[in-house]
Amino acid sequence: MKNLLILAFALAIGSSAFAQDKPTARYSGTVEKYDAVTKTLVVKKNDKQGEFVITDASEVLQNNAKADVSAVAAGQKAEVEFWLDGAKKVVKKVKLSGTAAK
């Protein structure tokens, strides 16, 4: 029984570490919109836009300080670090700067 518990614990730690070690990519631009219900972030860069999903594990920084996801607002500059989960782009970290559009 003790060996089974040790194995289960090791697998739990290993799987959470694996999720954080996924290869990431970056995308930067201006926040077009954020939908708090679907947790979808849209960032526009020139004539293209990227759509990302913010999870509870995503890190949000506002002017290099840790912030709540409610800080995300249209018009801010955003640097998004994300990984792919199938076709879905999942935010690992988003750095926000500037002020929201009025």
Structure description:
The chain is of the alpha+beta class. The protein contains one helix and seven strands, in the order H-E-E-E-E-E-E-E. It has a seven-stranded mixed β-sheet with strand order 3-2-1-6-7-4-5, with no helix packed on it. Strand 2 (40-45) and strand 3 (48-53) form a beta hairpin. The chain is globular, with a radius of gyration of 16 Å. The termini are far apart. The model is unreliable at 14-18 (pLDDT under 50).
Q: Give the beta-strand count.
A: 7
Q: Could you describe the largest sheet, including whether it forms a barrel?
A: 7 strands, mixed
Radius of gyration: 16 Å
Per CATH, which architecture? Beta Barrel
**Largest beta sheet: strand ordering:** 3-2-1-6-7-4-5
The overall number of domains is 1
CATH topology group: OB fold (Dihydrolipoamide Acetyltransferase, E2P)
Q: Poorly predicted ranges (pLDDT <50, ≥5 residues)? A: 14-18
CATH superfamily: Copper binding periplasmic protein CusF
Continuous helix count = 1
Beta content comes to over 45%
**Helical percentage:** 10-25%
Question: What is the arithmetic mean of pLDDT?
Answer: 86
How many angstroms does the end-to-end distance come to?
61 Å
Order of helices and strands: HEEEEEEE
Note the overall shape: globular
Assigned CATH class: Mainly Beta
Helix/strand structural class: alpha+beta
Q: How would the blueprint of this fold be written?
A:
Elements: H1 2-20, E1 25-35, E2 40-45, E3 48-53, E4 59-62, E5 65-66, E6 77-85, E7 88-97
Parallel strand pairs: 4-7
Antiparallel strand pairs: 1-2, 1-6, 2-3, 4-5, 6-7
